[in-house]
Amino acid sequence: MLDKLPKEVKIVEVSARDGLQNEPVTISVEDKLQFINMLELAGLKNIEVGAFVSPKWVPQMANTAELLTSLKKQEDISYPVLVPNRKGLDAAIKADVKEIAIFTAASEEFNQKNINCSITESIERFKPVIKTAIDNNILIRAYISCVIDCPYSGAIEASKVADIASTLLELGCYEISLGDTIGTATPLRVKNMLNTVINNIPVEKIAVHFHDTYGQALANILTAIEMEITTIDSAVAGLGGCPYAKGASGNVATEDVVYMLHAMGIKTGLDIEKLCHASKFICNKLNRQPTSKVALALNCQ
Ligand code: HMG
Ligand code: MG
After folding, report:
1. Span 2-297: which CATH code?
2. Domain spans in the chain, listed from the N-terminal domain onward
3. Which residues line ligand 1 (CB under 6 A)?
4. What is the largest CA-CA distance in the chain?
């Protein structure tokens, strides 16, 4: 088993987007900037900072443009934002964004609730978005939600995930993040799903995005890295949730992922104490406790 583990893993920090989009408290631009700065100081090189989505649908992301105006971007850090359509891309171009993340799902029902269109319609919508993004030298990451289960329609066929992943890759996305949106995945199901996707697209194009509703995310991540996946999405303090996946809890906590990886000799480039500082800062602003076991053990609450 140990032979198969990678030497290094890339963490994509999603707390400033996924982590905040479902919270009852709206975080000000000033506090978001301070939070992002703390994430930078912890060594993160991929920090998702917001979303150009409808402010009526997701009010917590409404200050994304303002945030980007004030954000002092570091050369070696990527700050992707979510973009669902042409209007979102136009806002991203205006804000001089260098990387966007488009998002669809492997479930028709979830996609309708989340972005108000079918899977096919979403792909059609993305085609000109991707083309224009490429013309503007913008990198495109893609999310597929509900890769294991859908909160509305139950279990998802892995072949559906694999087909959507190949389509998005062919259209020009550089990476496909596979989302266990409601956190019901368990290691064997993850292994089966990933085996099917890896048959369709190169393993180095795959990232995993586990929500931790049932406490299975670390086991699922270990399964993924044993299958040579080296990009993991996570959020400090275990923040996160999707407004259209009722009952789903936060993302796997970055502190917990990093603790596990470092203990196995896998490098992340991250400083766990500094991650805990960021975690503590944002939890104070949100008036809540972290769900990260490591943050609690290190007394960062
Ligand atoms: P729609 O209602 O179908 O869009 O929404 P529309 O084109 O008919 O426009 C309706 C209104 O929205 C108009 O405004 C548009 O201007 C406005 P009005 O005339 O009524 O005042 N609008 C926009 N405003 C700002 N930015 C835009 C934009 N587009 C239209 N880009 C839409 C379609 C996709 C916009 C909507 O459904 C939406 O914003 N949904 C939010 C989706 C979202 O953010 N979900 C959470 C993130 S996904 C996630 O968490 C999963 C993930 O973490 C992976 C995982 O865990 O599985 C990524
Ligand atoms: Mg998510």
Report:
1. 3.20.20.70
2. 2-297
3. 18, 21, 51-54, 57-58, 82, 84-85, 87-88, 103, 114-116, 143, 145, 179, 181, 209, 211, 242
4. 49
